[in-house]
Amino acid sequence: MHHRPIPNLRRTWLHAALACTLAGVAWAPAHADALDSIARSGVLRISIDPAAPPYSAKDARLAFAGSEVEVAELLAKDLGFKLEIVPTNPASRIPYVLTDKTDLVISTLSITPEREKVIDFSVPYSGIQVIVGAPRATPLARVDNLVGRKVAVVRGSTNDTELTKVAKPGTEVVRFDDDATAITAVLSGQAEFYCTAPALLAPINQRRPELAMEPKLVVKTNLTGIGIRKNETRLKARVDDWVRENLRNGKLNAIYRKHHNADLSPEVARAAGA
Questions:
Q1: Rounded distance between C-alpha atoms, residue 191 and residue 182, angstroms
Q2: pLDDT at residue 176 above 50?
Q3: 248 partner at 20 to 30 Å CA-CA among 31, 234, 242, 267?
Q4: Is the preceding omega at residue 54 within 30 degrees of 0, hence cis?
């Protein structure tokens, strides 16, 4: 049975859930078992950031495309549900799950201890490097070389977190709301370097080939998981089983190779127990 919060508390729990997205325990109304709710509606709602090619973007027909989109499509198909993609951005990926706007989030969401306090994750289905990219002609061997230089990064992302940990005093970290605006900043010269995933250097090189942006420093390699509301044990078990099966049969690797021209790290399957 679905219990709604009493009206004068609705705003309170909503604001609390949003405020504690990355720290503390999320507040949310009581809800029915998510897998039962999805089965009744026949629709699986998955939030995806459409501004992070080649993981996810809008194609020339304004349809969703990219590796994360194909993972979501395959998951919904295999589970027997119609897929509803809910556009999101880095800041709203977790709040959308907490406030029941979506059932799952598949959006380059790295598994971190801070996020695990707020939501559950599936076993890893992919991995993503945190790199600092620069034009080929620009020397960059150590994080010390970033001192006095501007580095673009998406605000609040794991890229932001990891860069902040290693950046030396004097490094000018320029934060943007999403990858689209960070890429525009690099293209326009607002920042010389870009802390991101290797694949996200491609849109820059497509628009300004003369930059020849390439990974210069590997800050960290993160495993990514499918985000799920806390305590949805049946849904999590179903998704975990699906991830392991599709790592074993090679379908997830095929999707990744198609969009990234590389294979998934063997660490992904090991961590997933596949």
A1: 9
A2: yes
A3: 234
A4: yes
Element (H, E) at 216: strand 213-224
pLDDT digit string, tens, across residues 28-69: 444 568 999 999 999 999 999 998 888 998 888 889 999 999
Question: Which of 30-39, 209-218, 257-266 is most confident?
Answer: 209-218
Answer for the pair 119, 250: CB distance below 8 angstroms, yes or no: no
Specify the pLDDT at position 32.
67
Tokens 């029941």 -> residue: 100
Rounded to 5°, angle at Cα 132 from 130 and 138: 160
For residues 124-152, b (16+ Cβ closer than 10 Å) or e, as one string? bbbbbbbbbbbbeebebeebebbeeebbb
Q: CA-CA distance, 157 to 140, in Å (whole number)?
A: 23
Does the structure show a pLDDT above 70 at 23?
A: no
Q: How far is the C-alpha of 150 from the C-alpha of 175, rounded, in Å?
A: 10
10 Å CB burial of residue 54 (0-12, 13-18, 19+) is buried
Q: Is the pLDDT of residue 115 over 80?
A: yes
